[in-house]
Amino acid sequence: MSLLRAMRKFEILFDDGEGSELPEAALYGKLGFPAPVGDRPWVYANFVQTQDGVVSLLGAEAGGSDIGGLPEDRWLMDLLRAHADALIVGMGTLREEQRMGRPRQRGPVFRIIDEGMVRLRTQLGRGRERNVLVTARADFQMSDFAVFDGDHVDATVVTTHEGARRLEAQHASHPWVDVIATDDAPSAHGPGVDPKQMVALLKERYGIKYLLCEGGPTLYTEMIMAELIDEKFLTVSPMDVGLQSANGRRPTILSGVGLGREDAVRWHWLSCRKVGDFQFHRFRRKFTGIC
Asked: Does the domain formed by 40-244+264-288 have CATH 3.40.430.10?
């Protein structure tokens, strides 16, 4: 499938990023990533939000496509996936997508759909796509979710030692799914996986150099508070919706924390593009020292 026929050109307002201009990515322009810093992968996140910072409308319109919905945004998602050795996402996000039944009743498989980006991934030598699902309790059945079928991507579950024990009975029917256990770590949402140990184990087991975080807010918050997010790609939709809805308080990117001026997460604005009234930003966290 090619998304290019439905797309408009990105208007580059400025771009201070480094890297090559690959022919397959020419519509976006310059995109490259630094070598990983230290002994962990380079981790970049991708979100779409409203102008007032909401990342999910909840209810029947809980997906990112209900805020964005542009073919350009979907293509950019594939471009970022093409560069990643693996994609990491919270199990809550997968459950929410399954609940909506889009695009299928057993939930999505987070994979590249654009043919050009499939070729780009091969050119970059990234290998078969991998989805990493993060869950503390692991209270689910793998057979309920298409991502664990092994047809399109390799799948890994990262959980606690208790969660790994809970999944042992399912291993016989899904021997191709890897389960990685980490120590418990406290978070704003209760006991969870240890994010630093998680990232270290992913690099050790798979040799991951570039890891793409697609959320949701809970996972992203845990990783950013552990200083594991190096970059953020942010699509801003030209709408305001407010935090309140009939289904509860709508989430923003940071979940369950409140930082002050002194401990705020600070970013360097690396590039900006636009398509119509939609903004496509790239930020790099200042602690990386590569700005």
From this structure: yes
